[in-house]
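Entry: Cobalamin-dependent protein
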Amino acid sequence: MVDEFLQLVGDGDEYGAVELITELHDSGVPAERLMIDVIGGAQTRVGELWAANEWSVAREHAATAISERALAALALRTNVKPTRGRVTIACVDGEWHALPTRMLAEMLRLDGWRVDFLGANVPGPHLISHLHQTGPDVVALSCMIATRLPRAHAAITACRTAGIPVIAGGRGFGPGGRYAQHLGADAWAAGAEEAVRRLAHNWPPHNQDPQLSAFLGDEEYTYVVRHRPELINTAMRQLTEAYPAMREYSQRQLDSTAEDMAHIVDFLAAALYVSETAIFTDFVAWTNEVLQARGVPAVALRVGLETVQAQLRDYPTAAAMLTAGMRLLNQ
């Protein structure tokens, strides 16, 4: 089922994808399994195909849009009267991966929750205004990329200040959600099914010590964030000198390289924010795989890390994280 659905979304066959999902539902496949196993499973493969440079960004976006359409068609077939509380679901400010949260919204509707689905990239002040207007029993926040952790922390803190517990989800919170509690979330779930179970039993959990997440980020984090444009621009100039192949780059390649340098700085800042080197080294390992799939040698990434490190010699924690990234590339 997953392979067939993936083929359809990859071919841009919206009609066929929706028809497959509805036919499977008519044949007795539970809506939950179609959402998680078929649509969700195919979407995981879409991301892997993009990372391996087998699919373009345009094809990946088109496939995601069709998956959203299929999910919406399935949702129209499942109308469950709310019997539980009210939940607000949102992606944190700057987070655009909305399909996982949309699947969570539909799963919770099936479980009897009244759901306010706010979608992608919800600014913190707007989220809090919505909470004051609607008074939900719980907020579900998604963060798929670690660079959004500072904004996730701000949103979690604001929700809890308003007296509303938070369940967090998404890869951005680290393996096993290790950063979620550190940022003040009441709970974390690995996926939609786990979130449904957590909210159905023993909710809300015992509140943690609010001081646990009261102070994050230090002077090194602050410096990197405040000097972000300077760090990127200087690194780009130095990279051109240290990596001669860049002189033959097209404008599109130069723009992509600038984006990569920005990601280096942003992931470094996120790692500094929660004092977790693995955030940065995991990013370096993933980026190296993506760049090599696109024919960019590891030396280019290593030189990029060196150009950033050269600007942060007076900041030992940041320099050590960059060293860890370069050591990984040398393995």
